[in-house]
Amino acid sequence: MGYAHAESQTPIRLVIHGGAGTITKDTITPEQEKQYREKLTDALNAGYAVLNSGGSSLDAVQRAINVMEDSPLFNAGKGAVFTHDGKNELDAAI
User: Fold this and answer.
1) Closest C-alpha among 79, 80, 43, 36 to residue 61
2) E strands within the chain?
3) Under a CB-based contact definition with an 8 Å cutoff, are residues 66 and 44 in contact?
4) CA nearest to 40, candidates 68, 4, 1, 61
5) 88 phi, psi to nearest 5 deg
6) Residue 73 and residue 35: Cα distance in Å, rounded?
7) Mind listing the pLDDT tens digit for each residue in 2-33?
8) d(CA 49, CA 54)
């Protein structure tokens, strides 16, 4: 197995998701779906910009998350869906 050298052109990969909620095609309008997709694209672009300019993967992840935290469409970093027991449980890790 070989390893990429720092000077090689390794492709950048950044993967995000908007949560584990219960939004389905029959519970969202096309306009709402467009808004979610646009904000997720903004988050990807923010993270990619960090990586593309030579920033660290940690900084890229944090920047992508910040975009979702700042959006009212997502509860990232700000809240959670209630559990079956009626409590909010949060955890986060990078």
Assistant:
1) 43
2) none
3) no
4) 68
5) -90, 130
6) 8
7) 444 455 567 778 888 887 777 888 889 999 99
8) 9
